[in-house]
Amino acid sequence: MERTSESDLVSLLAATRGVYKRIFGGVDPKIAVSAPGRVNLIGEHTDYNQGFVLPMALQMGTVVVGSPREDRIISIVTTAEETEEPKRVEFPVPMEGGALEPGEPRWANYVKGVIQHYEAGPLPGFSAVIASNVPLGGGLSSSASLEVATYTFLQQLRPDDGDPVTKALVCQKAEHTFAMMPCGIMDQFISVMGKEGHALLIDCRIPFRAGPTVKRLLRSLETHLVPLSDPNVVVLITNSNVRHILTGSEYPTRRRQCEEAAKVLGKASLREANMADLEASKALLSEEVYRRAKHVIGEIERTARAAEALQSKDYKIFGQLMVESHNSLRDDYEVSCPELDELVSAALEIPGVYGSRMTGGGFGGCTVTLLESGAAEKVRRHIEEKYSRTATFYLTQPSDGAKVHRLP
Ligand code: ADP
Ligand code: MG
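YS: structure for the whole thing
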C-alpha cells in the first residue's frame, strides 16, 4: 500500500529538473511549481448544480519546471507515459488577437487552454517539462492539477493579481473550451485552495443576479476549511483501475437532466430546491430525471451535514453519509459500476471502517474510504482478496494547494 507523502513530490521535482536539463541544453530550469490532485470526500455531481462539495487536496500532484526564453516560442514536454505521442509540443506565443486552438496531441490542450485564457497580459516564450504522480484518468483529477500547475507556472512568468478564484475559474474554462469537458468548479478550486490538515467545504452557488463577469461571480463562491488531521483516522483511496467508456458521454447528459429538472421545478438550479419541491413536481418529470434530481438534492443536504459531522469529529455519522451518497450515486444517479460497488462493499465488511463511496465522476476510477488508522492494513488485504481485479491503494492526508518551489 502506498502511503503518500510530501517527499514524493519533492523527488518528482528533482527528477523532472534532470529531464529538463537533458532536453533543454544542459541548463537548470529557473521556475518550479506544483499543484495537487484531489479526492472528494462527499458531494458528488453537486458542483455544477451550485451545491456543496467537500474535497481535500492530495499529496500527489503535477509539477512543471521551466524557464522563459527569448524567441517567443513555447516548448512543452510531458513525461507521462500514458499520454499519446508526441510528448513534445511547440508553438509561437499567441499574439494579441491571435488564438490557440485545441488539437492533437490531446494532453497539450489542458496546457494550451490555460495559456489562452490567462488574463495577465502577454507572456514570454518558455520551455517547460511536466510530470505527475497522480494517476492519469483515475478520477483523482490529474487534469485540474495539470491546469492549475500550468497557471501557477505562468504566474511566475507574468504575475497576475493573485486572486485564487479567478485562477480556478480560468483553469475550469480551459477544461471546458480546450478539453471539451463541461466540468464543475470543484477540482480546480481545491487544487488552488487546498490546505494541509483540512478538507474544504466549497459552496458552489452563484447568486441569481450575479453579473456575467468572472470578478463579480467570485465573491459568491465561498469556502470553509474543515480540520481533518486526527491521527486516529485515515483516508484510503482505492483505484479500481477501470475506466468505462461511458465517462465522456454520460457527464453532459447528467448535466442536462439536472438543468431540465431545475427548470420544471421553477428554480435557477437544483440548489434552490428541496425534497418537498421535487415531490410536488414528480408527475411533471420523467422517472429518470426525477431520480437524477433526487440524488442531487439529497447529496447537497448530505454534504452540508457531513461537513458538520467532520467539524465535530463525528466520524460515524460522516461514514453513514458516505454510504448513503454511494447508494444514491449507484441507484438514482446511475454513475457507479460493478467494480466500484465491489470495492465499497468489501471495505464496509471490515470493523473500523466508518464509510466508503465512489468518488469523482464515476464509471470507474476510485473509491474513498474513511477508517480508523489501525484498520488500514486489514482493509487493504480484504479488498485485495474480494476484488475481482487488481486495485491500487493510497493512504493519504490532506495537503496544500498549488505551490511555487525554490530550486536549491
Ligand atoms: P482525471 O482528471 O480524473 O485524471 P481526465 O480524463 O479528466 O482524468 O484527465 C486525464 C488527462 O489529462 C490525460 O489523459 C491527459 O490528457 C491529461 N494529463 C493529466 N496529467 C498529465 C501530464 N502529467 N502530462 C500530460 N497530460 C496530462
Ligand atoms: Mg479530470
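YS: worth flagging: The first helix runs from residue 6 to 23.
IM: good catch. Also The chain is about 40% helix and 25% strand.
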